């Protein structure tokens, strides 16, 4: 049994971030702390069992699937019961302090499991590895191995070292590693939608963010390996891929033979051309980098979903400068205007941080007014949490009192709820194409799937199938879900 239920309760009660949609993408709170789930529990043929628990953003969950692929080669089967495992791995997130605290608590629990199973190995993977390796490994003796996000290929050797009683560590960051040749084992999957990492790391230096320190320099994966993975997914029955990167618009790959460059807009087009029945999404776009070329490519292909996640972080130019986001309020609003011009029916979501260093009431009001102008469909909303080693931690004082941060976050959440509901209500009466993802959570008589604009729709199952596109007449809504009836099956057209 995974402790997902307990952790969900813990995360909800902490409320480090909030969002409206049950099926959003980047940081899905309902998935935090869940164990990677095998199609069937590790069978008798697997000589050893591994338990992998994951935290953080979608890229981290994807990394866990790469780890599962590497371990499968070594004869490990997966289990969702940590007590049964020979190897317990926790793939960590360092974005906010609370995530780190949760991981430490889990490691204490694994330590007590080890008392009954002396040869069980416990390892920490991912973003917390570099910063906490000394404490976790040597001081608190909580774990046997510590492996950074670019060192997963060395896992078999590290496990062997740990088995021989040594402390096994590899937290080296790489300028090249993209795991391009490893096909992730897709386990907690609905068989219809999949995530594909197209790049790793980040070269931006947003002052609040640990990612450049924990995941290293930005590097892009070859278009050939991305296309191969997407084609394979399509052949396996998947009908939607989401291309993932911290800043997808700076995707840039140079062919070592021909010196020819591939940009994100070109990659997007290549993936869209795989098959008109394959929907394409992407995340995350950086407001300073998203280009007209990307927007026009989206407009040309009906199978590129009209939905953009464009994190703003704050509506105040002064705060954006302190965050080193390299755009102003006006610059951001111009990008949004451009999106509305080129893609009039595009869904828009964002990330917002409440209570960054020196944020005044006037700055906060600017965030609220920007939300009104952008009319977001959805937002991930966070209280600022100082992260050791970041530029903000070194340069600025975390001086907004916790109570004020909380109240501002609440106001941002209320604003988001109002905007989201308004946007959902606008959908009522329209007919939208929906890709069926599977049974609805509430009733096995209903299916659920998302519109192009990433809105979840629930409708009666009838004779339809998972993975099928249907046109749904929207008849009602809540703030998070649209309700409807299928009016016809649909065939998307490919524009050349
Ligand atoms: N690369 C993406 C971008 O630039 O928009 C976002 C990556 S980050 C994993 C996801 C979100 O976490 C950020 O957009 C930000 O809102 C939030 N975040 C990052 N560091 C944070 C911090 N120290 N405190 C609160 N929220 C933070
Ligand atoms: Fe962090 Fe900024 Fe890079 Fe996003 S773009 S991962 S917020 S440094």
Automatic annotation (TrEMBL):
Keyword annotations: 4Fe-4S, Cytoplasm, Iron, Iron-sulfur, Metal-binding, S-adenosyl-L-methionine, Transferase, tRNA processing
Gene3D superfamilies linked to this entry: Methylthiotransferase, N-terminal domain, tm_1862 like domain
Cofactor: [4Fe-4S] cluster
GO cellular component: cytosol
Entry's localization field: Cytoplasm
Cofactor: how and how many bound: Binds 2 [4Fe-4S] clusters. One cluster is coordinated with 3 cysteines and an exchangeable S-adenosyl-L-methionine.
InterPro entries attached to this UniProt entry: Elp3/MiaA/NifB-like_rSAM, Methylthiotransferase, Methylthiotransferase_CS, Methylthiotransferase_N, Methylthiotransferase_N_sf, MiaB_methiolase, rSAM, rSAM_horseshoe
Function summary: Catalyzes the methylthiolation of N6-(dimethylallyl)adenosine (i(6)A), leading to the formation of 2-methylthio-N6-(dimethylallyl)adenosine (ms(2)i(6)A) at position 37 in tRNAs that read codons beginning with uridine.
HAMAP family noted in UniProt: tRNA_metthiotr_MiaB
Protein name (Swiss-Prot/TrEMBL): tRNA-2-methylthio-N(6)-dimethylallyladenosine synthase
Gene that produces this protein: miaB
């Amino acid at each position: 049994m995974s402790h997902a239920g307990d952790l969900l309760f813990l995360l909800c009660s902490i409320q480090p971030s909030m969002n409206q949609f049950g099926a959003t993408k980047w940081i899905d709170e309902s998935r935090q702390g869940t164990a990677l789930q095998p199609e069937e529990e590790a069978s008798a043929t697997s000589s050893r069992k591994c338990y992998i628990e994951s935290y953080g953003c979608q890229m981290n969950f994807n990394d866990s699937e790469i780890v599962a692929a590497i371990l499968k080669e070594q004869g490990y089967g997966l289990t969702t019961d940590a007590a049964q495992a020979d190897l317990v791995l926790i793939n960590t997130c360092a974005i906010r302090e609370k995530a780190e605290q949760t991981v430490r608590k889990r490691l204490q629990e694994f330590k007590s499991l080890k008392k009954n199973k002396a040869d069980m190995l416990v390892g920490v993977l991912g973003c917390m590895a570099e910063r906490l390796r000394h404490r976790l490994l040597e001081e608190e003796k909580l774990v046997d191995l510590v492996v950074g996000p670019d060192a997963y290929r060395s896992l078999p050797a590290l496990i062997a070292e740990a088995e021989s009683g040594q402390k096994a560590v590899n937290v080296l960051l790489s300028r090249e590693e993209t795991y391009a040749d490893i096909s992730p084992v897709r386990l907690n999957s609905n068989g219809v939608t999949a995530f594909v990492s197209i790049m790793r790391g980040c070269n931006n230096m947003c002052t609040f963010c640990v990612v450049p320190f924990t995941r290293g320099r930005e590097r892009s994966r070859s278009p050939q390996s991305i296309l191969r993975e997407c084609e394979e997914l399509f052949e396996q029955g998947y009908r939607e891929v989401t291309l993932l990167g911290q800043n997808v618009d700076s995707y840039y790959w140079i062919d070592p033979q021909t010196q020819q460059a591939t940009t994100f807009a070109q990659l997007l087009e290549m993936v869209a051309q795989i098959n008109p029945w394959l929907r394409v999404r992407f995340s995350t776009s950086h407001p300073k980098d998203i280009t007209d070329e990307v927007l026009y490519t989206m407009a040309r292909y009906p199978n590129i979903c009209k939905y953009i996640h464009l994190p703003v972080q704050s509506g105040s130019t002064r705060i954006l400068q302190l965050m080193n986001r390299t755009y102003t309020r006006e610059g951001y609003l111009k990008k949004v205007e451009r999106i509305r011009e080129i893609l009039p029916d595009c869904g828009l979501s964002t990330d917002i941080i409440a209570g960054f260093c020196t944020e005044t009431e006037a700055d906060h009001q600017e965030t609220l007014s920007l939300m009104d102008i952008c009319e977001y469909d959805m937002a991930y909303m966070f209280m600022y949490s100082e992260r050791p080693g970041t530029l903000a931690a070194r340069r600025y004082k975390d001086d907004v009192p916790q109570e004020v941060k909380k109240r501002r976050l609440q106001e941002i959440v209320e604003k988001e709820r109002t905007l989201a509901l308004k946007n959902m209500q606008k959908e009522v009466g329209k007919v939208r194409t929906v890709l069926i993802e599977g049974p609805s959570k509430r009733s096995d008589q209903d299916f659920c799937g998302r519109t192009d604009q990433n809105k979840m729709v629930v409708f009666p199952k009838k004779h339809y199938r998972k993975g099928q596109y249907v046109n749904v007449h929207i008849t009602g809504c809540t703030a998070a879900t649209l309700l409807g009836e299928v009016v016809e099956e649909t065939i998307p057209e490919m524009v050349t």
